[in-house]
Amino acid sequence: MNRAMVVAWVVCLWVFSSAFADEIQFINGDRLTGKIKSAADGKLIISTEVAGDVTVDMAKVKTFTTTEPIEIHVGEKNVMKTTVAPGTAGQVQAAAAGGAPGGAVAIKDIKSINPPPVK
Predict the structure, then answer these.
(1) N or C, where is the chain less crowded by C-beta within 10 Å?
(2) What are phi and psi of 107, to 5 degrees?
(3) pTM of the model
(4) Quick one: residue 102, left, alpha or beta (phi over 0 = left, psi -120 to 50 = alpha)?
């Protein structure tokens, strides 16, 4: 294989792998990709291929996306199991699921994501 072909394969693999990853966009413009595992007490945990589990301050998150449904708890009783698309700064866009309306969710209102089951 020639060098151009190798570079093309590497770029394709990188684009393909990042297309199937969750992504956090920070207020300062940085981005982090991986799999969002959970959130509680204002901290979000994302599992990355390179750095392992990384805990981030949700106050510094501009928006985030998921490729698979996550369980989002907003307030005391509002629970959604949905995929999330990027929203405007400080929000995410919940997808409509099971006939329920989707819509904007303020990150500051998210109490937890994928909490452990109650024993």
Answers:
(1) C
(2) -60, -35
(3) 0.79
(4) beta
